[in-house]
Write a structure and sequence with these properties.
Layout (H helix, E strand, L loop, with lengths): L4 H5 L6 E5 L3 H17 L4 E5 L3 H14 L4 E4 L3 H7 L2 E4 L4 H17 L3 H5 L2 E4 L5 H13 L3 E4 L2 E2 L1 H7 L2 E6 L2 H11 L3 E8 L3 H29 L4 H9 L6 H4 L25 H17 L5 H16 L11 H8 L3
Parallel strand pairs: 1-2, 1-4, 2-3, 4-5, 5-6, 8-9
Antiparallel strand pairs: 7-8
The structure holds nicotinamide-adenine-dinucleotide.
Amino acid sequence: MHPSLRCLQRLPRAKSTSFIGLGRMGSEMAYNLFSKQFAKAPDSQFVVCDAVPESAQAFRDNFLSNFPGANMEVAHTPVQAAVASRTIVTMLPSSPHVKEVYSGSIIPSLQKLPSEDITQTLCIDSTTLDVDVARAVASEINAIGALMVDAPVSGGVAGAKAGTLSFLVGGTEQSFKLSEQILASMGQRIIHCGPSGAGLGAKICNNLALGVQQIVIAEAMLLGQKLGLDPSVLAAVINSSTGGCWASSVNNPVPGCLPGKSPPSERDYQGGFVTALMLKDMGLATEIGKKHKCPLPLGEAAESVYAESIRTKPDLAAKDFSSVYKYLKGRAGQ
Ligand code: NAD
């Protein structure tokens, strides 16, 4: 049963946390956050919201079946979620969604609250989005007197489920301190990267390096096989030599060449970090590179390789980005 706006407004904001965006990452993160908050303070209030109301309802049903005494409401809209809680966490797809949810819903609804409620509000956005958009939204939030951090994550769906994410945080010292204990319920490493936008800057630079490395490892593994090398031997050589990196030692794109490990390549590239999201992140890097006149020749090349892999094999969009190896194999006529 959905609550009315008036019912959500009656929730004590201080004890309430709202989570907006219950997709692959958000649902796991919210589960960890709320279960830990519930264990510490069983009178906590939880509010969940998603553009697909069935997702929020399914989350609530599942949570309440495991924590029957918990107070959890489904908000129809981000407006309802914002008025209900002092702490608002968002995990949305990208820049347009963050702009719409904050500038179109959260900020106007906070502005209608008494000023002491506004100043005690903390917004945590864990979306991976454009740094400039994130900074603009944070300064709108700060302008009305509330606090905000950008806190994108590294660690993927498995890390979100296990509660082992790394959070890369951008914001003032005060907002970082307030967000730290909330983020610690969802992750293992909480790193203050600098002022507003710095968390996203760090996240985008990391994924730029990762996206390029995954392609070159796929290239090396393919070339090695063309030269007659056993892929397991080649992987062992790279992983104990100067070419070794996460893309080769943990996420190797060739099935069966990491004994004792189970990368997505062993499950036809299911699970992991999907190519569509990696393409989005490469686009964020190349766009910000252009704006800052920073040459990114490998980043631009990698962006077009991922785009081309999805164009020629659309099913790769929803597979782990190490499936770029499959695309290169196709180009090699294999
Ligand atoms: P997702 O598409 O599964 O989830 C996004 C959720 O936001 C969906 O449930 C969607 O319905 C909801 N949503 C969209 N617009 C909304 C609105 N206006 N109001 C309320 N809800 C709305 O995406 P995801 O995989 O969970 O990724 C979320 C973010 O995390 C992205 O920015 C992504 O780049 C980043 N990220 C993802 C991974 C990963 O492995 N999936 C890893 C690291 C970072």
